[in-house]
Every structure is written in structure tokens, then in C-alpha cells.
Design goal:
heterodimer; A: alpha+beta; 5 helices; 39% helix; B: alpha+beta; three-stranded mixed β-sheet; 2 helices
């Protein structure tokens, strides 16, 4: 944790979180995710048809460092809705399956998640085992 | 910090030692791990707060020595996911 009075990187991250109702910090871009967890989170958001801002943390290691300092969350991806950390891939997946994510995104009346926009959602290349 | 590659057994015992009353099932290949953890300490916590407790067990090793840790938390065996 840094005690520096000015921290432009952290300010920029905070501003991005404040200005974007739905923002995902991820590895890579929505079109080219560089990690299975980011890919899976993007696929869920895209299947819900909710527009979201995305920030690639890979180009500068300070982004991740400052983001994790701000959010008190060590891993990437991180999804923020209305300025609040919702979670990473595990929590987003659980909330999607339970319908809570749709609710958090204000999509209560959206079509059931079983009918995603198929052409865009590829099975995410995953190494996660969900031991449900 | 422990040396050498992390193992599911190591993660399990550290989680169980670090969170009072926790029972953990951990699988993994030395880099990516998946943990299902049941602990009364999660009761009343949001998912975010419960997962933070687990991350805190490992500190800076998350993202480093432990490349990825997928987490599922429950307050009790039959209960809702915390």
C-alpha cells in the first residue's frame, strides 16, 4: 500500500471505475482475452448483452498493482458495477448462474441466460474446474 | 514463504489453519487451483468478504507462486454459497 499523496495511476483507475457503470479490468481485450478467467467473465457479460467498459491490465504492471491496492482484491479479472467491486470470475459465474448478476446489472426482465447471443460466445478456453 | 511448487495438500492445510473451523477441498496442478471451502467464519459475509479471507491466507503468493485460485465458499455444508 502506498502512502504517496499523489498517485496519477490510482486516480485514473478510480476515475474509470466512477465514470463507467460497468467496467471490467481484465487480461487482454474482450476480443482477445489473454487468460481463461478473463475470457469466461467477458463471455458472461457479452451473453447478457450489457455494454461494459474494459481495461487491459497487461500493458503496464502498475495498473494491476494500483487496482489491487484500491480494491483489496488480488486477482484479475475484476468487475465493478456502479463503482462497487462485484468480484472476479468465480463470483461473477456464481452470480450469473443464480440470476444475481442480471439483477445487479439491472437486467431483471432480460431473457433467460440459457439463450445467449450464441455467435459471440465461444466456450471459454478454461483450465478451471468448477467442483460444484 | 514456502519454496517449491504449491500442492493442493499444502493449500488445503494452510486454508484450514488460517480460517477458524474451515474445511477445504482443493484440487490443482501446481499453478491453477480450485478450492471449495466451508467455514462458519463465512456466515453473514458477502462473497467478496469471504473470498478475501481466503486470499488473505496466501497474501502475495496469489498471482505469483499460486498462479490462480478458484474459490467457492460456504458457511456450512448444506448452506448457501457465502
Amino acid at each position: 500500500m502506498s502512502d504517496e499523496p499523489t498517485n496519477p495511476m490510482r486516480d485514473a483507475i478510480q476515475e474509470a471505475i466512477s465514470e463507467n457503470p460497468v467496467i471490467l479490468f481484465m487480461k487482454g481485450t474482450p476480443d482477445q482475452p489473454m487468460c481463461g478467467f478473463s475470457a469466461r467473465t467477458v463471455a458472461i457479460l457479452q451473453s447478457l448483452g450489457k455494454p461494459f467498459a474494459a481495461v487491459d491490465v497487461l500493458p503496464d504492471p502498475r495498473i494491476r498493482q494500483e487496482l489491487s491496492g484500491l480494491s483489496n482484491w488480488p486477482t484479475i479479472p475484476q468487475l465493478f458495477v456502479d463503482g462497487e467491486l462485484v468480484g472476479g470470475c468465480d463470483i461473477v459465474t456464481e452470480m450469473y448462474q443464480s440470476g444475481e448478476l442480471q439483477q445487479a446489472l439491472g437486467l431483471d426482465n432480460a431473457p433467460a441466460p440459457e439463450e445467449p447471443a450464441v455467435e459471440r460466445v465461444e466456450p471459454p478456453p478454461l483450465s478451471i474446474e468448477n467442483r460444484l | 514463504m514456502s519454496a517449491g511448487p504449491a500442492t493442493p495438500e499444502e493449500l488445503k492445510s494452510r486454508i484450514e489453519a488460517g480460517i477458524p473451523g474451515a474445511r477445504a477441498e482443493v484440487t490443482g496442478d501446481g499453478h491453477h487451483f480450485s478450492a471449495t471451502i466451508t467455514a462458519p467464519a463465512f456466515r453473514g459475509l458477502s462473497r467478496i468478504q469471504a473470498h478475501r479471507l481466503v486470499y488473505e491466507v496466501f497474501g502475495a503468493e496469489i498471482g505469483g507462486r499460486i498462479h490462480a485460485l478458484s474459490i467457492q465458499t460456504k458457511a456450512d455444508e448444506n448452506g448457501e454459497a457465502a
